[in-house]
Design brief:
heterodimer, A: alpha/beta, Pyruvate-ferredoxin Oxidoreductase, domain 3, six-stranded mixed β-sheet, 8 helices, 20% strand, globular, B: alpha/beta, Rossmann fold, 4 domains, five-stranded mixed β-sheet
Chain lengths: 194, 590
């Protein structure tokens, strides 16, 4: 079996999981490491729950098996819970504190989960919960939430922070490089303080 | 050479550029679409690239280009190959002058498809070679090999990456781009290109004659290979081979199949050296059947005797389960923890402000629950969640299923939905047929001016080609009228009152009636800079009746017995029009 470092990034279609994957992949290239990944495209993206697998030093398949992920990064609180069974014992979790309520709870009148209920269920994973919207807005763009979360998670990722930051600068739209670089640093500072 | 972190389809597209292609065509379909999307975005194009109106059209165009001496790639998803099957079968007879690679992307687990068919079965059926990559780098490398095989044997070559190749990423080593310098020229040769019976009988014999050398060549090229490590063996193909390599215990031989047809003599020799063989492959038991034919009394474990599933996709966990069951692993290394139960689902959903939702709402309002709603393939298949999709089979089958029902069940209104791209793909024939044969039904063309679901590819209705050049406008109205439809009305579905009025009129008429519900795709509109302003609910007026919530827009929430809108609102205004008490209106500018 390969000893890859397996990261599952989850969220909702449109939240930037694919950019996050590209940043990790680019950082691997900079360090001369192999990397494999898998993502959700097509119809399933339309506001649906999406998952991106990244295997740093991965040599074979792109998929992470439930119960084996080293790190779970979630851009949405509810999605973190949905995919929590992917995490191995002792794996790390870095999660956006915010939650987009699924339309299904309104149309099907199911009980609406609250933030405290979900954080309670996640407590056994000792997650790093991050107010990504606030930090991203402070950094200069609320669209940089994915980069904030990546910054917070960077302590748990076996890649140099410089490689990740260089990848962020290369891959975000040119006009947003400064805001995203700040978002990464602020996220990273938050992750350390914790 | 520099390494890049690329999507499988991006790597495949780059490999086409490295192979000096002169022609590219395709019809969008997940998971294949990004190949032509990457090719069409290249600067200083040295080749022709097009989104064709359907896969049959795409393949016939690419075949002709290959006859003219241009290396050609034609892309589609697996079910698109059904549409292109007619030219595919006979293209094996006529062959090609230079390389033609037909990429048909399979979708095990039907992530974004109506079935789980296997392109390798078509390759066997047509007697064409088929390459089957196990990873992103191999998918890239196989493209140039596919062109070489196509030219060596003068045959089109099928190339079948799966979803977990097309939409996987990996660090890939790329080669240099070779700009096309060839100018195509068609040389007449009726015995090759005119398949009258006298010619085709000879061509069929030629095709069959190519098979033995082809099988040997695929082994020589290293596409099919093995390592002997013990008395038991695993034979795997496609992404399954990658999963097996992660789990392969010491002392177990491994054979990787990357190309078909498989050389039986070579396969038999390997099989006879082992006491037990396990087959790991997705979809149909193509490798397994080949192995069983040559295995003699060596026990074979696979789908046919219940060790592996026919349906769904493989994963390391599934493969480990099969290996354990067949005795190749003592213990499954994965524990398969259960997901947290009963979480609210988050399925894909029509976007906030999608005009299909408004059209479905109006249709249901006018035609009611008892009407029958055949539908088609596109974002609007998600209308299922709104109770406005009763059937979906394949591209273009809304109008045809609708007319079939109208002839067979006179007690219900039939109102079918089809998108503009799907209508142009295979819908027009159904409409012509319905009018010609006297069906009574309403057809709603959900016209968003683009092929949205697969990533916003242009079609003849968009006004631009794949490369962004302006194209002559086509008129859906005129197409419908020329098919003999007399009631054709175009209406903006955001104008709920107008939409309801037109549908009421249509309902009163007999025969085939067409309503064209025309509005820009909300994503395309946002990208084009259309800003309409958000709508908001006035909690003082809202009675909490839930009418807007039932509409199902993700921009509408319902908390503490009142509706409210969120930041997803695109300003389509439809909820404002359907609120019975007028509580929803455009938000005042801050």
């Amino acid at each position: 079996m390969t000893k890859s470092f397996d990261i599952l990034i989850v969220g909702i279609g449109g939240q930037g999981t694919i950019l996050a994957s590209n940043i990790l992949g680019e950082a691997c290239l900079r360090e001369g490491r192999h990397v494999k990944g898998a993502e959700t495209h097509g119809m399933a993206q339309r506001g649906g729950s999406v998952e991106t697998h990244i295997r740093i030093d991965g040599l074979y398949g792109p998929l992470i098996v439930p119960g084996t992920a080293d790190l779970l990064i979630s851009f949405d609180l509810l999605e973190a819970l949905r995919y929590s069974h992917y995490l191995k014992n002792g794996g790390k979790m870095v999660i956006n504190r915010q939650m987009v309520l699924p339309t299904s709870v309104f149309t099907q009148k199911t009980p609406i989960p609250t933030e405290s209920e979900i954080t309670g269920q996640l407590a056994r994973f000792d997650p790093c919960l991050i107010d990504a919207d606030r930090i991203a807005t402070e950094a200069g763009s609320s669209l940089a939430q994915n980069v904030v979360i990546l910054g917070a998670a960077s302590w748990s990722i076996p890649l140099k922070a410089e490689s990740l930051l260089a990848a962020v600068k290369k891959l975000v739209p040119p006009k947003t490089v400064e805001a995203n670089a700040r978002a990464f640093e602020m996220g990273r500072a938050f992750g350390r303080a914790r | 050479m520099e390494r890049h972190y690329l999507l499988g389809n991006e790597a495949i597209a780059h490999a086409c550029l490295e192979s000096g292609i002169g022609f590219a065509s395709g019809y969008p379909g997940t998971p294949s679409s990004e190949v032509v999307d990457v090719l069409r975005m290249q600067k200083d194009l040295t080749f022709h690239v097009e989104w064709s109106v359907n896969e049959k059209v795409a393949l016939e165009n690419a075949l002709a280009a290959a006859w003219c001496g241009l290396r050609s790639i034609c892309t589609m998803k697996h079910v698109g190959l059904n549409v292109a099957a007619d030219p595919l079968m006979t293209s094996a007879y006529t062959g090609v002058t230079v390389g033609l690679v037909i990429m048909s992307a399979d979708d095990p687990f039907a992530h974004s498809s109506q079935n789980e068919q296997d392109t390798r079965c078509y390759a066997h059926f047509a007697r064409l070679p088929c390459l089957d990559p196990a990873g992103v780098q191999e998918a890239h490398d196989m493209v140039s090999t596919a062109f070489a095989i196509s030219e060596e044997f003068s045959l089109p070559v099928l190339f079948r990456p799966t979803t977990r190749i097309c939409h996987s990423k990996g660090d890939v080593e790329l080669g240099a781009i070779v700009p096309n310098t060839k100018v195509g020229e068609f040389h007449k040769d009726p015995r090759q290109y005119v398949v009258i019976p006298a010619h085709t009988r000879i061509l069929h014999k030629k095709l069959n004659g190519k098979q033995p050398a082809l099988k040997k060549r695929l082994v020589e090229l290293g596409l099919n290979h093995y390592t002997i490590r013990g008395k038991t063996a695993i034979i795997a193909s496609g992404i399954g081979a990658a999963y097996v390599q992660e789990l392969l215990p010491p002392g177990v031989s491994f054979m990787k199949i990357g190309a078909y047809p498989i050389d039986e003599a070579w396969l038999g020799e390997f099989a006879q050296k082992h006491e037990k063989i396990l087959i790991i492959e997705e979809l149909a038991p193509v490798v397994e059947e080949a192995v069983r034919q040559v295995a003699g009394c060596v026990p074979v474990f696979g789908k046919i005797n219940g060790y592996a599933p026919y349906e769904g996709e493989l994963s390391p966990a599934v493969v480990a389960g099969i290996m354990t069951k067949a005795g190749f692993l003592e213990k499954n290394p994965f524990t398969a923890p259960d997901p947290v139960p009963d979480l609210p689902l988050r399925p894909p959903i029509l976007c906030a402000g999608c005009h299909h939702r408004a059209a479905f709402y109006a249709m249901k309002k006018v035609f009611g629950e008892s009407a029958i709603y055949p539908s088609d393939i596109g974002c609007y298949t998600l209308g299922l969640q709104l109770g406005a999709v009763d059937t979906t089979i394949c591209m273009g089958a809304s109008i045809t299923v609708g007319s079939g029902i109208s002839h067979s069940d006179a007690s219900h209104d039939v109102i079918c939905t089809i998108g503009d791209s799907t209508f142009l793909h295979t819908g027009i024939q159904g409409l012509m047929n319905a009018v010609y044969n006297g069906a009574s039904m309403t057809v709603v063309i959900l016209d968003n001016r683009i092929t949205a679901m697969t990533g916003h590819q242009p079609n003849p209705n968009t006004g631009v080609t794949a490369t962004g050049a302006e194209s002559p406008p086509i008129s859906l109205d005129a197409i419908c009228r020329s098919c003999g439809v007399t009631f054709v009305e175009t209406v903006d579905p955001y104008d709920l009152t107008g939409m309801l009025r037109v549908l009421e009129e249509a309902k009163k008429k007999k025969g085939v009636r067409v309503v064209i519900a025309k509005q820009m795709c909300v994503i395309a509109a946002r990208r084009a800079g259309v800003k309409r302003g958000r709508y908001a609910v006035n909690p003082e007026i809202c009675t909490g009746c839930g009418t807007c919530v039932k509409f199902g827009c993700p921009a509408i929430e319902f908390v503490d017995e009142k509706a409210r809108t969120n930041e997803l609102c695109s300003g389509c205004a439809v909820c404002g029009r359907l609120c019975p008490v007028g509580a929803i209106s455009r938000e005042a500018k801050k």
